[in-house]
Design a protein that fits this description.
Chain lengths: 236, 176
């Protein structure tokens, strides 16, 4: 079964410095029907103006993944980590017992767009940690590139998260197709970052998401005239 | 577990007090508090700012990272932690403006049975700020949670421990 979450149905706030879309309830957007999907709790599509960002704020017991789509972000936290990163990088902060961090657009002239994802951890009170893993863009072209996983991955460097979940990035050219099996009892979520993708025959546009339940595989096919980029979540 | 909100407001020129305030806030988060961090921006002669190494850069950075405390923060807070350098001038405009905000909240009964605390950077024999902060908080009927001096060798560890302690006291007060 596929349940589609259309882009325009998401929570949306344009604060000027921040233009943000919330797939699930977050901050000022609250909808009991959209509190997340399985362990996937937050999926925000944020566009932050040049030089602006989120000041020091706290997290606890959450796996926080950041995936930049355009531009670059500067991150600073109470663990002493201070980094600037851009596209083709997965950043994961395991908040565990508590982290205070800030994140700002690293550019004084260009906006930054990124997906921020919160995954509920399977265990609380872990030691806070920070991971930032860059990869070659070719690793996601026409295939799924593992970004983060609760299990050790063979032959690929991915971020470790405290949840039985795997997060992949993929890019497809028009009419290009790929298929990924979904194990019995597991669930999937596809989030289209840009372009258009058909998911098991259902066409999704930029910003759309789709929940997959009781599906044995996900078949993804590039639509339209341009490249499509998306994330795929394999969830317990 | 009772939800607890901790407001940490600090004044910092060089970033030293900011680190202590962040440590106290982190301790509060570790004790499962919601936190807000607020910065008191000083209103001083720009020439003076230029004379102190790092002040201008830190001020610019902090003005991007923090906002000033607002009335709504005090209505929200179950505990108030003030961060100040040991030689802070509490009679100066930045602290006086904050104490005025606190007095307004006190006048509305918003500080009743709330916890108050301080973290002081560079504290020791020349700690001039702490007694003044305690007196100001006590006059607002806040229930003081004194720093547990000597419990931790490291100032940041001590501030984290204090943040946890303040949260636990605020949680207990809220349950009364």
């Amino acid at each position: 079964m596929i349940t589609i979450r259309r882009s325009e149905e998401r929570g949306h706030f344009d604060h000027g410095w921040l233009n943000t879309y919330h797939t699930f309830s977050f901050a000022g957007y609250s909808d009991p029907a959209h509190m997340g999907f399985r362990a996937l709790r937050v999926l925000n599509d944020d566009r932050v103006a040049a030089g602006r960002g989120f000041g020091a704020h706290a997290h606890r017991d959450m796996e926080i993944l950041t995936y930049v789509l355009d531009g670059s972000l500067t991150h600073k936290d109470s663990m002493g980590e201070q980094h600037t990163f851009g596209v083709n990088t997965i950043q994961v902060m395991s908040a565990g017992t508590g982290v205070i961090h800030s994140e700002f657009n690293a550019s004084a002239s260009e906006p930054v767009r990124f997906l921020q994802i919160w995954i509920v951890p399977g265990v609380n009170d872990v030691e806070p940690s920070y991971q930032q893993i860059p990869f070659d863009a070719r690793e996601k072209c026409g295939k799924l590139r593992l970004l983060a996983s609760g299990k050790a991955a063979d032959g690929v460097r991915a971020a470790a998260i405290h949840q039985d979940a795997a997060v992949y990035a993929g890019m497809l050219r028009p009419a290009e197709t790929l298929t990924q099996a979904i194990a019995p009892g597991r669930y999937g979520w596809v989030q289209v970052a840009r372009g258009s993708v058909a998911v098991n025959g259902e066409v999704l546009a930029e910003g759309d998401g789709a929940a997959l339940s009781e599906e044995r595989e996900v078949s993804l096919s590039g639509q339209g005239a341009g490249d499509a980029e998306f994330l795929f979540f394999d969830l317990s | 577990m009772q939800d607890v909100n901790v407001l940490v407001t600090f004044w910092s020129r060089t970033g030293r007090t900011e680190k202590l305030a962040l440590a106290a806030a982190l301790g509060a988060v570790q004790a499962r508090a919601n936190i807000r961090l607020r910065w008191l921006r000083e209103d001083v002669d720009e020439r003076l700012v230029g004379e102190v190494p790092g002040w201008s850069e830190n001020r610019e950075r902090m003005s991007g990272e923090y906002v000033a405390p607002r009335e709504a923060d005090l209505a929200w807070a179950d505990a108030v932690i003030v961060g100040a350098p040991a030689r802070a001038e509490l009679a100066g405009p930045e602290f006086q403006a904050y104490f005025e905000l606190l007095r307004g909240a006190h006048g509305k009964g918003q500080l009743h049975s709330r916890a108050g605390a301080a973290v002081i950077s560079g504290a020791g024999a020349n700690d001039c700020a702490l007694p003044g902060v305690y007196e100001a908080l006590a006059r607002l009927d806040l229930i003081l949670v004194p720093a547990h001096y000597g419990s931790e060798a490291d100032a940041l560890q001590a501030a984290r421990a204090h943040g946890r302690r303040v949260t636990e006291v605020a949680r207990a007060l809220k349950a009364l």
